[in-house]
Structures are given as C-alpha cells and as structure tokens.
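Justification of resources, computational component.

The compute hours requested in this renewal are based largely on the per-chain cost of generating structure records like the one below. Each record pairs the submitted sequence with a full structure-token output. That output is archived, and it is also reused by downstream analysis tasks.
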Amino acid sequence: MCEGHASPAEVAQGLPRPAEGPAVDPIRLEPVDEIRITTLVENVFDALLVGDERVSRVGLGAGRATAAQFLGGAADVGLRAEHGFAALVTVRRGTATTSVLFDAGLSPDALVVNAGRVGADLTGIQGIVLSHGHPDHAGGLAGLAGRKGTRALPMVLHPAAWTRRRLAPPGGEARELPTLSPRALAGEGFELVERRVPSVLLDGAVLITGEVDRTTEFERGMPPAHQAWTGSAWEHDAAVVDDQALVVHVKDKGLVVLTGCGHAGAVNIVRHARRLTGVPELYALLGGLHLNGPYFEPVIPPTVAALRELAPAALVPGHCTGWRAQHALAAALPEAWIAPSAGSTYVL
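The structure output for this chain reads:
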C-alpha cells in the first residue's frame, strides 16, 4: 500500500483541514532568528553523508578508540546508532542563544558519548523535554543524571509518561517495557513539570504541545499489541496520550516541528501546532513519524499527500519512520527531504 500514487480518496482524506472553532488555549509564540537541532541519538549513523547549507554532518574521526590491531594502537570512531532518539535544540534571538534537550535515547550512555564526540555541551541546557514515556526516549537520562549542570533541571513531561506498558504480540510472549520512576528522577535532582496542556519555554520561544488533538481519519495510533496497565488489567493503548512535540516559530519562515515518535500522527501534530499558534506555514518537520511495519503502511499514502500539501522547506523523518515511508517521502518531496543521521546539525 506504499507503492505508486495515492488514490484520489486517500489524497482528499489526507489534505489539511482546520479543526472546528478557535484553539481553546491559543499560544503567542515569539519568533526566533534561528534554530539548530543536533540529533544526538538516532537509529542510523552514516559517515559518508555530505552536508549543505541546511545541515552539517559528522563523519569518522569524531572520536578515537583503543584498537591494538592497528599501527599506533588506536582507530577513528563515529557515533553510536541505536533504536532511540535525542536532540539538542538551540534557539537564537539576536545574539542570545538558549538550549533544551528533547528526549534522551535508549541506552544509558549513547547520549553522553555522542554529545562528547560532536562537542555538544549538555551542561548549558536550560531544561529537558520528554516526548513520551517509552524507554527509547528516556533511557539516556541515567547517563545524564548527576552530571555537572543537570542538577535541578526542569523536565517537562506528560503525567501519562509514568504509564506501565507492554508489547503483547498475537501468539508471542508479552514483554513489559521499562517504566519511568518519578521518585528516581526526582532523586537525581530533576525538577519534574507534569503538563497535559501546552507549555511555553525559553521566554516564549519554544512551545511544547501537550496532548495533541486527533483530527485525521487515517492516523489511528498503535496496534493492539501495544498495551497499558489500567490498575486492574492490560488494555490496548492506541493513543499513547502522553505523546507531545516541540514547536518553534522561525521569523518570516514558519513553524519548525520536532517529534519524538509522532504517535499522535505527524499530520495531527502539525495541524495542532498550526491551530495553537495561528501560524499557517510549516517550515520544517523533523523526528520520528512512526510509519514502520505492516500495521502502519496504509497510513503512508495519506500522510505523504498531506505533507506534500503542507510543503515544508525541510523534512527530516528519522528514528521510527521506516524505510518504506522514507522512500515515499523522499520521492514526494525531493527538495525538502534530508537523510537522518546521528550527529547531524540542522540549521533553520
């Protein structure tokens, strides 16, 4: 269902349309002069990618490792790639810059190792934002905890990020996912800020969407194998209601939207950001779009149709987007599409 062109019905279904009525909580988002997004954890690392005016790349030689089999006893290394996502987001207004960390990857050390190899200073961040509670976005908090500059850092997250979840595939063994502990995070010195509604950070320059309105017919959430504990039973958790995105308004360009997994649906998220801010232009969309695997393949054509209509200048679908969706998006928006890779810095 991801080969060829979308049908007229799929195209019509995917076209952006406004939600009824004005936003309940409209946001005045202060425009910024520039945003830099450095992906510190990504599913892929490609040392041969070439940068351009929109993106700078990191190749082999970002670090050195002991390797006795080589003359000199050392070898160049690149960045670690894993099934996870983390990004350092820096906004500039005039000469002033401020930064936040968006997600933290899967393993305890990939975030800090990669940050060191690209020269990213994590001690200067003003806060942490979690897109949702899945472990591939929160595992690296262990490596970050207790480091210089991270004590008493505010961490913005949805209260449902503490939800116990499991994967229970038909005919397979159920596997419970690691669940975040508020007590443990607070004990490490993080200041937990739980919000269901939008939050505005960095003096009004960064919007965290909170819960996202679900307005499309085709973005249906997670499959039945994804379950949550209700307190008495495991039930299908399609919505992943804690899913939220980061939004910045670049002056004279439009909105930059950064997702973790995009469980709310890429098109739902963009529509929600436009409605909240009143800014109609989508300048860039980056992050995981969760279009990987047979359950999500029917969602690819209407998503591509909607994003083609929105016409972002930059599109960096990463992490859990999946190779079929990558191919479809690259073919539909060839000038906007940019290949993801750990250590890349996107300048908008």
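The two ends are 33 Å apart (CA to CA). The chain has one domain: 11-16+25-47+82-347.
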